[in-house]
Amino acid sequence: MLVFERVICVLPFAPFTRTYHWKDMDKNSSPQPRIRGAFSTKIVQEIGTGTTKRKVIQSFLYYAEETETGEIELRPLNENDVPSGEAQLISKEELLESFTPELELYTAKVFPAMKELTRTLAKADRQRQLGNTFTAEMEYGKALNIDEDNIRANFGIGLCYLTRKEDEKAADIFKRLVKLDAAFEKQHKHLFNDFGISLRKNMMFDEAVEFYTRAIVLTEEDENIYFNIARCYYEDGKRKDAMKFVEKCLSINPESVPARKLKIHMSKKISA
Prior knowledge:
By secondary structure, this protein is of the alpha+beta class. It has a domain at 1-101. It has helices at 2-10, 92-98, 103-129, 133-146, 151-163, 167-177, 189-201, 205-218, 223-235, 239-252, 257-271; strands at residues 20-21, 32-33, 36-47, 54-66, 72-76, 88-90, 100-101. A hairpin with a 6-residue loop joins strand 3 and strand 4 (54-66). It is elongated and about 75 Å long.
């Protein structure tokens, strides 16, 4: 019972959300809102030795959001008061025991900063979809000034460069993205696909293959990734490598129409 009372104390941090847990409810019960908000934690460290030994208390700020499974996704707040970097999962109990709610910080700084970042990204995406890549690049740049590791902004600005055939700039973005695990999460799948395809269309075959290979390590078995690697190798003139990845694609999904067509096409070329 104590845990639920503490959860209720946290919930006012989230005026921008009305999400609820509907699992394990009967029709007479009320939904349980999910936790979202800013939290802090302190770590005490001892530095020095002998007479110079002393304790130092360090404070760390985080944005916490409860997932559909009831776990807490925790991301550090950067100097611009937005969540940035890789997320870590902790239990709700650990959050409530080891972290302190920061209502004033969230209301005054974190929520407005996150809202502004979302607005900027939406404007950038809209301009890119309209083909206004220079305006879109400027908006993505504003987003990156707020959060340099923002996946959506990095993908977006990279797609702008690829559309304009600015391969050197696109290669710099590629190097940044390929190091970010979050770039390959399901929520960014459509951007990931667009970026990989654009790399291939710009004949940046080595980068495209490295990009897709990185995805294989971080995602579940997806036949489309193997097919995309096969196509990169095929267009790069590496038929043997292409056939190997087509076979891998078909081993996961024997009914893949694009893979079957590419295999038949390559088989004809080899026998000709």
